[in-house]
Fold these 4 entries.
Entry 1:
Amino acid sequence: MTKKRIAVIGGGSSGLTCIKSCVEEGLEPVCFERTEDIGGLWRFQDNPEQGRASIYKSVVINTSKEMMCFSDFPIPAHYPNFMHNSQVLEYFRMYAGEFGLLKYIRFKTTVCSVKKKPDFSTSGQWEVVTECEGKKEVDVFDGIMVCTGHHTDAHLPLESFPGIEKFKGQYFHSRDYKNPVGFTGKRVIVIGIGNSGGDLAVEISHTAKQVFLSTRRGAWILNRVGNRGYPIDVLVSSRLYYFLSKICGQSLANTFMERRLNQRFDHEMFGLKPKHRVKEIALTKGNDDRNN
């Protein structure tokens, strides 16, 4: 019986796992990666590439290696709990090498279009048009797996800042930020208190004259390392925490966690206490312990 062919679009972390899963299920995967290498978001480049997510040089992942590793391929024991982006990429390379995934990837190949075949109702097949080095190719697949990520396009709502056209300083999205060198001696405002905003405010403060971190609604700040030095995501993802949440209810679970966070520093005193409860929205993970 002929193997079903599956098109995997993107050679990042999701693309690699999809290739491996297809092979294990007896399918024939063909992965299309528009760049010359694997890694997606985690492959740092000095200059942002069009159509690909971009990170800054100092990025440390905010998920511990214990929680992010592939179940069938543990991260080396000597790697830190929270890895630098270069180590995340190296781990993906080891994973791809261990399971022989590179042979299924067509590099420098862009997917131009994906559409159902005219007889899709009976065949269930898709027509995929790709381009490599100026040459287009049409192929047919039995299934499509889209692994392109969701951090590709920058959201820069300039309409929210009346008078921005008269601003004589420099402004840009964190996607275009690479290092703090260009901010030496300057006054800087970082808008947004998500993980990137917190990272950049801390890093730029080492070289800038003054840094302001602007937040619209505040945030609950969670440090990466918890009690006794354990990664915080390992602690809060335990069966005990899950059991207590079910028994006590969401409100009590929120109260308990908010009290713990306020023991570290008083969110209200620093003007950071948000209106939402701690488990109602994503937390911002602080980077004071980024090297642990």
Note: Residues 288-292 have pLDDT under 50 and may be disordered.
Entry 2:
Amino acid sequence: MKILCVSDEIDALVYNHNIRGRYADIDLIISAGDLPMEYLEFIVSSLNKPLLFVFGNHNLNEFPYYHGTSSHQLMYINKRENLDFGFGSTYIGFKIKRESELIIMGVSGSMRYNNGLCQYTEAQMFRKILRLIPRLFINKIRYGRYLDILVTHAPPLGIHDKEDLCHKGFKCFLWFMRKFKPRFLLHGHIHLYDLQEKRVTKYHETTVINVYSQYILDTEEES
């Protein structure tokens, strides 16, 4: 399966009238956060393929649609009949979804650094992940594996992350990879300004990929 992964930056090769020709063989789209919903809507409407997404720590205008944590939630509820809540995409933040035979789990947000929306302490993130463990064990019984792909916004601690608190990775992601062995962890959040910066790292049985801007994942070729 070929997956178009996007995150953090609008890419001119994607946001382009030639998108259908350039990505004609794409089966699925995954967004690792920090992108406008209108951009995701453009990709979905152009390629007519399923799109799964998580939120990052920016571009959070639509965050209250999916999480009842904003003081403006009532305003959104009152306008609900006039809004396309899905934008043609499926939100998988702190959820697990089976898509085209792949089991995909999503985790939104970054490390808490200024008490903004969709920011979590290490302990908060760990608790959110723990709530999904019963579903993972059901997957193991039913499909013979816990999951195939973990989609996060922030990276794991010590893998592609930075020293500042905002861009620091989560330690619990390391534990999760060791315990549940996803084939891939796809993250964004860490901008790649140098083409020589490392984008792909192997951690135990998981291939960790920084999908900043855009990245094509062929699940049949990469491992």
Note: The two ends are 13 Å apart (CA to CA).
Entry 3:
Amino acid sequence: MSVLNGKKVLLGVTAGIAAYKTANLVRLFIKSGAEVKVVMTPASKDFVTPLTLSTLSKNPVNSTFYDSEDENELWNNHVELGLWADLMIIAPATANTLSKMTNGTCNNLLLATYLSAKCPVYFAPAMDLDMYKHPSTKTSFDKLQSFGNIMIPSTSGELASGLVGEGRMAEPEDIIDFIEKDIVSKLPLRGKKVLITAGPTYEAIDPVRFIGNHSSGKMGFEIAKTAANLGAEVFLVSGPSHQSVKHSFIKRIDVKSAQEMYEACHKYYNDVDVAILSAAVADYRPKNVASQKIKKKEAALSIELEPTQDILKSLGEIKKNQLLVGFALETNNEEENAKSKIKRKNLDMIVLNSLRDKGAGFATDTNKITIIDVDFSKKEFALKSKKEVSKDIINEIIQKLNA
């Protein structure tokens, strides 16, 4: 999954021959999972039609403040467009538009939207060689970047005039790649490796039966997605779960038993910066596993159980510089049990939730948590979706990493 997935992208198109490339650029943004809206300068419609871009973006394309032929038409709100976007890109960015952006000239909807944008703004210059080399253009490049705008460099090649040199707008694939890399470089968990466990474990009784629990894995998977979206390389060790995830930063390792999860965690633990153990690991397993299906009989069946290895405690015992986060799902004496777990297992923090809280626990889409620190300071959160809860957890971890 691209880091552009779910992003709101505002594409500004100006009047350069490279405008024909914007059709493919819109398509690639959509393919990356972004939502796209397009604003055009009036003159750019001579190079690519609004119909093409509206069809590809699945959104109306605006080029004027209002439709002069429709007296009932509402104005196109440039402020609303500028605030809507997570990022704005002007491509192609002609010498004319770049100069206006530099000087705050505001004589069309695109420029008004640019001046209203609160998000990162990228620009991809496109012009002929002599224009590209002109000192005034260089001044525009420097000033726009000093304002915080991000330049996507032009490439060299054959230009519309027949000259060969700098000034070609970067190809759509390269623009997407540039923006993705720029976003990743600024993410708070970039360069961090995170181990996350999720779901239940199944402990075999015989070839067809097992001891397990009701964990769905939703919480762990949401934590994995949030961490990956913030730049982390994630190792997701999952017990049996119907949850799915597609993200280029997430490596999923599927296991069944507590022993398999133990081995997987120890395989990756030494190389990670953070370990978040949200899985509901079985505390006991059958001491003897039948090789054949146990037949039903009238007499009662007794199964001798033995403890599984305590994964969280074992990681706490070998912890070096890792930030170790545990989970506690309790039914009584919640806070006391969670604090005891912090000390016994050498944790840096624990995420506590109680089955007594409505909407919390297994197989729900919501959760209500309290995060308790190693010094027993605590922070309580309201009932939220597990996606939002995952953000609260990761934000607390980021604060600890930056402390």
Note: The CA atoms of residues 195 and 275 lie 5 Å apart.
Entry 4:
Amino acid sequence: MAPLITLGVTLIIIFFILIVFLNFFPFGLWITALFSGVRVSILTLVGMRFRRVRPSKIVDPMIKATKAGLDLSIDKLEAHYLAGGNIDSVVDALIAAQRANITLEFEQAAAIDLAGRDVLEAVQVSVNPKVIETPLISAVAKDGIELRVKARVTVRANIERLVGGAGEETIIARVGEGIVTTVGSSESHKEVLENPDKISKTVLDKGLDSGTAFEILSIDIADVDVGRNIGAQLQTDQAEADKKIAQAKAEERRAMAIAAEQEMRSRVVEMKAKVVEAESKVPLAIATAFENGKLGVMDYYNMKNVMADTDMRNAISQNSVNSNKKE
């Protein structure tokens, strides 16, 4: 029984050692590379293990590149992998560029990949141009009519400017600015509707792809819609504002007139008060005249008759005025 246990333990230890050995010495991958024409030593693969690099991540793209006729080195691929790059994408891009007769070096492809751009997609866009559709852009012609324009921009990736070049957002922004400028400089919106290619020609001549990662091939106007009459709306808003200003000034003048009227009424009341005050002194003056002998009894009664006659005339004239108003 004891020899069987010892034999089992020995087999387990040998199996464990074999797994560890094969883990650090990937003979299967080495044999695959050897028969694929990739010259790489087993010690190089072991060194990758110690550098925390999966050998298959390096060897498989190397096999693919060798079969495609690319001259790459294991050290370059490993250095790019350690820098955080995507080796499969870089190798695929190099193969695609070679098939399309596009000059693309490994260092350039690696730099594009490390810059955060999809280098394979860039090569594909360089071979097969991409269409970028702008959002609906609102622009106003000189006659005040709003036009809503949508354009399709056909671009091709510029490999040399992928590193440091602006992206699609810049292309869309520049095309939108060019559309607004072109429509805004038109005397009438009808000119734009009759010749929409005027927009694309004017915008294309501005060299909008300068400093970007793309080369603009064409700008096509997909749709032009007539929007609001901005000029009429602005005039209406201005007229409404002028109306409110005039109403405010009229209200101010009315308030001033009412204040002046109230002031005049207070002055009339004040003058009437003075008249009443003056009339209250008349009896005192008559009494003083009697005492001093300057006014006789007959003079007094004559004055009373004159006053009564005056009151009667005033009453008759007031009745005549009232009867005329009723008629």
Note: The longest strand covers residues 214-229.
